[in-house]
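Quick one, tokens below. Sequence please?
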């Protein structure tokens, strides 16, 4: 068996092949570069991850059934799987192999020199007993606190290879039900962390990592969380959890969370869930930019992905500080996911720069652009509110059928609450040809706003004027809420009903 050389025969990849042949319109940024006339004028190339040519074909495989693991979906196999890992490490390394079958487990921990391979038909099934996931200090929601560890944990490692065509399954339905019951009973008091849940995979402070072709299904919480790592290549994943497309819902089931990382590639992944599809994260709070464990998210390449439901093909936030040099290209959205979401926290210093979304095909019901304040769990910690800025944001070459155009609106100053407004510079929207159910577009003040060659429902749209309004935190000094998204010149709403099914099967099913 040769690790990581198998590629799934995704039918939807055929639809992306033509898109992949399009020349890259890359964007990057060394700093703010606010003096440039447009984003495209200053942007070097986003390269994404660089990984080594590690040869794993001759490594010894440590098959977990040889160490006592039982594929009945009931026997807790955590100790047997960890024994196989420890044996491989003691012998100088190798490949942990999960064979065909459903293997119930709690948290396992890869160790230096040990890669992971899931055979076709293999399922590493998360335990529904939260005590099977140790609770210790870990990175979660932009800070460190005691929290349950992931099903698969990869810490402080280099040259890591994870692949195969098997599945990680979080067995998450009871956790989702518990969360929604608690939030219904106590909406204000139940935070996202109000019910303890495990992520499917956590990669912490690693480099030269490849995660390829496996499926992530029904995670209890986030699916793949990558923190403070660099040169991570993520390809061919199927990530799915209950969402409107499947007639369900699943709280906080983010697809891929890139947290304070550099040089990341995410490509040919299929993601559909009930939260962010791909999120770029950092920290939050009035001094987040001073934290030593909070380097920028930068040099991020996202390409040829297929997105169903979710909060965004690309989301910056909820907790994020510096995000720069990001290119999203040649992707498809077929569900209710938004295309681009930039969350602006009034309690956090933030700078989003050189972000390009290029060549996206829409066939769903979401919103194209969602730039807006994010006030969930707002906390200035007794400090004066920091400032935020966006610059050199480019959205171009967008086609298809979708729900709405969206809006660009930031925070406005609120002296009573001590919050500052946002500065938005160099925002370009160009070469758009879409059919929309709601064609209106709302924007606040943007310095150097470019709106060129935009066609909606078959009609050219003029550059929309900035309108008053924004979002504050209430009280004197707060501007009124943003108007409904109807400020752009309206055109006939004659768009066809968008298709809300994927180009092919939406991923692996639960065992």
């Amino acid at each position: 068996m040769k690790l990581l050389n198998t590629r799934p025969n995704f039918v939807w990849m055929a639809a992306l092949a033509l898109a992949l042949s399009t020349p890259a319109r890359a964007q990057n940024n060394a700093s703010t570069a606010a003096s440039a006339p447009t984003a495209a004028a200053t942007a070097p190339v986003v390269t994404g991850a660089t990984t080594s040519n590690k040869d794993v074909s001759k490594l010894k495989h440590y098959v977990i059934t040889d160490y006592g693991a039982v594929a009945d979906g009931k026997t807790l196999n955590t100790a047997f799987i960890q024994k196989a890992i420890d044996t491989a490490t003691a012998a100088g390394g190798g490949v942990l192999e999960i064979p065909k079958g459903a293997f119930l487990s709690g948290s396992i921990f890869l160790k230096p020199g040990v890669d992971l391979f899931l055979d076709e038909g293999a399922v590493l099934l998360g335990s529904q007993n939260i005590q099977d996931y140790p609770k210790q200090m870990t990175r979660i929601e932009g800070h460190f606190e005691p929290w349950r560890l992931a099903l698969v944990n990869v810490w402080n490692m280099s040259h890591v290879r994870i692949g195969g065509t098997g599945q990680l399954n979080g067995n998450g339905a009871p956790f989702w039900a518990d969360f929604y019951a608690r939030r219904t009973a106590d909406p204000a008091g139940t935070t996202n962390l109000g019910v303890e849940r495990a992520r499917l995979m956590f990669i912490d402070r690693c480099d030269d990592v490849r995660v390829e072709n496996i499926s992530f299904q029904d995670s209890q919480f986030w699916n793949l969380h990558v923190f403070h790592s660099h040169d991570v290549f993520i390809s061919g994943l199927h990530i799915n959890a209950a969402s409107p497309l499947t007639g369900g819902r699943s709280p906080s089931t983010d697809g891929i969370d890139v947290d304070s990382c550099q040089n990341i590639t995410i490509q040919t992944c299929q993601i559909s869930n009930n939260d962010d599809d791909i999120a770029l994260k950092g920290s939050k709070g009035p001094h987040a930019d001073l934290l030593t464990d909070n380097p920028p998210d930068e040099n991020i390449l996202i390409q040829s992905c297929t997105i169903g439901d979710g909060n965004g093909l690309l989301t910056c936030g909820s907790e994020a500080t510096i995000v720069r040099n990001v290119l999203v290209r040649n992707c498809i959205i077929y569900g209710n996911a938004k295309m681009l979401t930039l969350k602006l926290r009034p309690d956090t210093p933030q700078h989003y720069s050189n972000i390009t979304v290029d060549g996206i095909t829409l066939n769903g019901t979401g919103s194209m652009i969602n730039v807006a304040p994010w006030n969930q769990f707002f906390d200035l910690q007794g400090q004066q509110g920091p400032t935020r800025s966006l610059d050199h944001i480019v959205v171009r070459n967008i086609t298809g059928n979708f729900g709405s155009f969206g809006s660009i609106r930031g925070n406005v100053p609120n002296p009573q609450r001590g919050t500052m407004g946002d500065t938005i510079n160099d925002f370009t929207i160009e070469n758009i040809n879409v059919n929309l159910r709601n064609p209106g577009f709302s924007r606040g003040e943007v310095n150097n706003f470019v709106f060129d060659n935009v066609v909606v429902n078959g009609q050219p749209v003029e550059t929309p004027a900035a309108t008053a309004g924004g979002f504050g935190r209430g009280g004197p000094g707060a501007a009124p809420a943003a108007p409904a998204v109807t400020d752009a010149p309206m055109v006939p709403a004659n768009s066809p009903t968008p298709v809300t099914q994927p180009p092919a099967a939406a991923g692996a099913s639960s065992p």
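The helical segments are 12-20, 78-90, 173-185. The first strand starts at residue 61 and ends at 63.
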